[in-house]
């Protein structure tokens, strides 16, 4: 293992001590999670906190660890945070090291700023990613039944993971049949690729059912759950109803562009190349114009403004919305950048000859996972980024630079969270994603 891994372990320990020393009472959603955990520890399994939207897998899995840590003198809040900080991320890192076949790329994802901060609080996101990563790796290793168990646990930690369970099954099937979907021209239309996929699926339906019957059962159970529950969330339904919020994809694009693990000099070269092509090529201008019109339509018709974005000034998104996205000049002006990012990333992937079909599929599932979320939450971008990282190969030196930059960003985020407080209508007011 490289020095970056040992340094990250040290940083995690320092951040954990720092946050637990400064923030001694539950912060934001920790209050609801901790209340539920305490009732489970008291053997009150019939209780459900009405503010919780996700299933109880987090509390079931934490239960034995908290019992053990309590005997060592840790209180329940610190115990829950320590589990999130050290146990689940460590498992994720080890699993991704095998999935990526690259420890540095696994480390890069482990310190991704959109998710790293939540490792130090008692939230569901860290466990959700751990279980999904396990399910994915086991599926890749052909342990279908064991993978389905972790898939079920993953969905029981965060419902939207059901989409990613479907995705990893389709991806596994494609990996087994990739030679049948390799076309000479990587720029073939999306419809062409989708048509080829469906034809192959209809031909292999018996094989698919045989291999993925347990995962299909989970999907059927989930559909039954939605019907019985009257929706996807468990509690606080008034604030978490599904809405069509296609603008989420526009918000994801800059994050993907910034976090894309490629040398920034190379990224600048691709940007210059794309702009030059736009200026010189009539076809490129026409393509960009079509993409721009689509982006403008999405932002105009399918932007959802959740009350939390307007009222909760503890999140960075509150200020991004108030200062930038709420103003028409910036909201629509950014569409020119969104369209350019699409052109640049497409250019990168075509030139680098990444798996076009796989990336189209990934973008479809990324879209489905984001466009029905009413809230703008950067942490929801983490799982799509995980699979984008999986598909793309990058130089070791680039990964080292990205690890350094991500570490600096995380240091700033955690320092601001711990040291900058302000007055508001809540018990504690600190800045966070």
TrEMBL record:
Protein origin, superkingdom: Eukaryota
GO BP term, example: dolichol-linked oligosaccharide biosynthetic process
Any one GO CC term of the record: endoplasmic reticulum membrane
UniProt KW Transferase keyword: yes
GO molecular function terms noted in the UniProt entry: dolichyl pyrophosphate Glc2Man9GlcNAc2 alpha-1,2-glucosyltransferase activity
Catalytic activity: an alpha-D-Glc-(1->3)-alpha-D-Glc-(1->3)-alpha-D-Man-(1->2)-alpha-D-Man-(1->2)-alpha-D-Man-(1->3)-[alpha-D-Man-(1->2)-alpha-D-Man-(1->3)-[alpha-D-Man-(1->2)-alpha-D-Man-(1->6)]-alpha-D-Man-(1->6)]-beta-D-Man-(1->4)-beta-D-GlcNAc-(1->4)-alpha-D-GlcNAc-diphospho-di-trans,poly-cis-dolichol + a di-trans,poly-cis-dolichyl beta-D-glucosyl phosphate = a alpha-D-Glc-(1->2)-alpha-D-Glc-(1->3)-alpha-D-Glc-(1->3)-alpha-D-Man-(1->2)-alpha-D-Man-(1->2)-alpha-D-Man-(1->3)-[alpha-D-Man-(1->2)-alpha-D-Man-(1->3)-[alpha-D-Man-(1->2)-alpha-D-Man-(1->6)]-alpha-D-Man-(1->6)]-beta-D-Man-(1->4)-beta-D-GlcNAc-(1->4)-alpha-D-GlcNAc-diphospho-di-trans,poly-cis-dolichol + a di-trans,poly-cis-dolichyl phosphate + H(+)
Pfam families from the UniProt entry: DIE2_ALG10
Membrane-traversing stretches: 7-28, 57-77, 106-123, 143-170, 212-230, 242-262, 286-309, 329-350, 357-376, 403-422
Subcellular location: Endoplasmic reticulum membrane
Main EC class the enzyme belongs to: transferase
EC number: 2.4.1.256
Keywords noted in UniProt: Endoplasmic reticulum, Glycosyltransferase, Membrane, Transferase, Transmembrane, Transmembrane helix
Membrane topology (UniProt): Multi-pass membrane protein
Pathway it works in: Protein modification; protein glycosylation
Function of the molecule: Dol-P-Glc:Glc(2)Man(9)GlcNAc(2)-PP-Dol alpha-1,2-glucosyltransferase that operates in the biosynthetic pathway of dolichol-linked oligosaccharides, the glycan precursors employed in protein asparagine (N)-glycosylation. The assembly of dolichol-linked oligosaccharides begins on the cytosolic side of the endoplasmic reticulum membrane and finishes in its lumen. The sequential addition of sugars to dolichol pyrophosphate produces dolichol-linked oligosaccharides containing fourteen sugars, including two GlcNAcs, nine mannoses and three glucoses.
PANTHER family (UniProt xref): ALPHA-1,2-GLUCOSYLTRANSFERASE ALG10, DOL-P-GLC:GLC(2)MAN(9)GLCNAC(2)-PP-DOL ALPHA-1,2-GLUCOSYLTRANSFERASE-RELATED
Family, per entry: Belongs to the ALG10 glucosyltransferase family.
Protein known as: Dol-P-Glc:Glc(2)Man(9)GlcNAc(2)-PP-Dol alpha-1,2-glucosyltransferase
The species this protein was found in: Paramecium sonneborni
